[in-house]
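Re: the request from the purification team.
They wanted to know what the chain is likely to look like in 3D before they choose a buffer screen. I agreed to run a prediction and write the result into the notebook, where they can find it.
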Amino acid sequence: MTTLHPPATNKPEPGSPAPDDETSSRDVDAPSAAIASPSELPPSPDPLVIRRKALLRFAMSITALTVIGHAVLGFEQPPIVPIVAVALSYALNVIFEAIDAWAWGRTPEYAGGGSNFFYFLLPAHIAALACALLLYTSVIWPYLLAVTVAASSKYLFRVTVRGRRKHFLNPSNTGIAVTLLLTPLVGFTPPYMFLNNTDGPVDVLIPLGVLMLGTMLNTKLTHRLPLILAWVGGYVLQGVVRSLLFDDPVLSVLGSMTGVAFILFTNYMITDPGTTPMSTRGQIVFGLTTATIYGLLITTQVAYAIFFALVITCALRGAVIYFAPRLKRVRSAGTSAVPAPATH
């Protein structure tokens, strides 16, 4: 039998001074000090808090750009467009959420007080202003069509992820893409509009400011920097390949990357946390896939390919989420159905 002895203690010699706090802290066993109890560890960030911070920052930034654009920069859309678009988006999202919650027997996401209702409306706010910013026409109804498609796509196209039904199409991008496809009189916002009333260094500072703000938000809050790098890198790669295969000038192919519209798409559209992967590997695949599809669409002379490429990529991701577990169950069932070899 092994006898357990109490651990030896380092007692001071008689007459020696007692160890002070600093000396005692250095005498603590290093591995024991490095392992903190769960109660001493800093609390992990609440995903809901992070999501709400991200939504609020994006909503504030796109609202500021809209106001400054109409008041200072010279946006050419009617000023009533963003107001009507936001109001319609609020109403549609509340109505669709109430219907969906009733149909599935769940509590609406906006229930639970004013704070929940406020944050529930932020995605609708962002989607509406994105449609108002990136579409270009002289009449109002195409903007309303885009907002309606954006809101309805969140509830019509859903897959089950970890027991929850989630949309897989980027709402604002889907609304813009469908509107561009169905209404020939609507176009994409021309790049010059974001710098209509500016000149000199300001023409550089505005895109740079939008780029820095969007990159900071995506790095700290949405953690979509790998997706951004994959998308931008893939965009450059497809531009170089096109220039080699089809003699397209590299500078003209890649020149659009310096515009505010491309920066907005890169930092505020493709990085939507609700419709993009969370893992680094998934983000890289998503970004490269979008860039590859964009290059293929441009090669076949498809206009507004950047929006259609993102719709196709989101749809492919939704199909993978839907079919992957079903195929896994089929393979598992097939494996279990194979009889074991007889043993003699």
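For the purification team: The first strand starts at residue 135 and ends at 136.
Please add any questions underneath this entry.
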